């Protein structure tokens, strides 16, 4: 049994090529054309065209790309004072050497055209930034955060209040990671879940500053990020020494760790309310039961008092209180009646004389007149 070979047409070839291209089209595409912002400092003075300062500047911008591509960061200088030029270039931590070099090259060409005659300028791209100045950059601690126009183009969210808390938790964690974890080389990425979405973010500092300065720069940048973009699907803040960004798609290359937003704050409040309600119910029940017990005991006490009164009365009737009698039944003493013996009574009545009988007025019948 043999099979028939079917010739592949031009349409089939194009279809195969299309299917091969699709998987790669969904991967992040790094382009150097994503210009974000250019800052030309007006208060640092100008240099003269074709001056030694300009020649040193051009030489600096020519050497930055190749050196920066090796490690992703470079800080150097060219020339001697007073025409010495300091330069700094930083590529995003996930960018490969080729993309890094291409970005720094284009940034150098752009900045010298946009900021001609300026002795201090910074330019930011999606994948890199370039900064030159007439003064040492490590002594420049002034924050120069910028809010690119790109931010206003991002879509608004339906629930910005809840999203803001989740976003700031992610970005604050990344800021600490970038500043204080030496293995990160001052670049940290991470993700966090928000409902059915995944939020991607990164925080980065230039490597010529200390961790505390990095943290301070990122903290200020996050304040601006929250103000401009916490109600949007994406946002970015750039500065001389740090930058932060987030989006709802994976815009960077490589892996990143997933953070979990601590929802225990809301849970604690709910648990506290439930516990309070339960405790209140228990207290009410205890009060009701206690009141019933008190009433029952009081009622029983009254009944017992009545019973005791009846018993006491019967006992008094059966045996009068304070009466002493002999075995023959003769009264000896009584607490209620005065007791006198027979001799005393006989003497007092003159041996029970009729003249001393009660009701007779103390006189004899023979001598009393009507």
TrEMBL record:
Keywords: Membrane, Repeat, Secreted, Signal, Transmembrane, Transmembrane helix. This is CYSTEINE-RICH REPEAT SECRETORY PROTEIN. PANTHER family: CYSTEINE-RICH REPEAT SECRETORY PROTEIN 38 (PTHR32411:SF43), CYSTEINE-RICH REPEAT SECRETORY PROTEIN 38-RELATED (PTHR32411). InterPro entries: CRR_secretory_protein, GNK2, GNK2_sf. Pfam families: Stress-antifung (PF01657). Belongs to the cysteine-rich repeat secretory protein family. It comes from Salix koriyanagi. The chain crosses the membrane at residues 12-33, 271-297. Its main location: secreted. It is found in: Secreted. Residues 35-137, 143-251 form the Gnk2-homologous domain. It comes from the Eukaryota. GO terms for cellular component: extracellular region.
């Amino acid at each position: 049994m043999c099979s028939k070979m079917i010739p592949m047409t031009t349409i089939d070839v194009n279809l195969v090529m299309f299917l091969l291209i699709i998987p790669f089209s969904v991967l992040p595409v790094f382009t150097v054309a994503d210009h974000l912002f250019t800052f030309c400092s007006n208060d640092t003075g100008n240099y003269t065209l074709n001056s030694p300062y300009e020649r040193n500047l051009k030489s600096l911008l020519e050497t930055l790309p190749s050196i920066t591509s090796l490690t992703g960061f470079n800080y150097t200088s060219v020339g001697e004072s007073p025409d010495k030029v300091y330069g700094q270039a930083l590529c995003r931590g996930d960018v490969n050497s080729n993309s890094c070099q291409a970005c720094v090259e284009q940034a150098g060409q752009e900045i010298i055209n946009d900021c001609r005659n300026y002795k201090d300028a910074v330019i930011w791209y999606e994948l890199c930034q370039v900064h030159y100045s007439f003064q040492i950059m490590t002594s420049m601690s002034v924050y120069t955060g910028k809010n690119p126009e790109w931010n206003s183009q991002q879509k608004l969210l339906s629930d910005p209040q809840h999203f803001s808390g989740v976003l700031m938790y992610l970005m604050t964690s990344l800021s600490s990671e970038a500043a204080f974890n030496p293995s990160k080389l001052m670049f940290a990425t991470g993700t966090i879940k928000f409902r059915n979405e995944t939020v991607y973010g990164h925080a980065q500092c230039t490597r010529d500053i200390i961790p505390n300065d990095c943290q301070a720069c990122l903290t200020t940048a996050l304040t601006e990020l929250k103000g401009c973009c916490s109600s949007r699907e994406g946002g970015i803040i750039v500065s001389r020494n740090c930058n932060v960004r987030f989006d709802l798609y994976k815009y960077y290359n490589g892996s990143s760790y997933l953070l979990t937003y601590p929802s225990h704050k809301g849970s604690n409040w709910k648990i506290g309310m439930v516990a309070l309600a339960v405790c209140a119910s228990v207290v009410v029940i205890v009060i009701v039961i206690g009141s019933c017990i008190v009433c029952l005991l009081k009622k029983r006490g009254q009944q017992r008092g009545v019973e005791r009164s009846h018993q006491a009365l019967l006992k008094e009737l059966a045996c009068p209180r304070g009466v002493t009698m002999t075995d023959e039944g003769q009264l000896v003493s009584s607490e209620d009646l005065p007791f006198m013996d027979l001799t005393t009574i006989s003497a007092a009545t003159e041996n029970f004389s009729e003249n001393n009988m009660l009701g007779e007025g103390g006189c004899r019948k023979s001598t009393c007149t009507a």
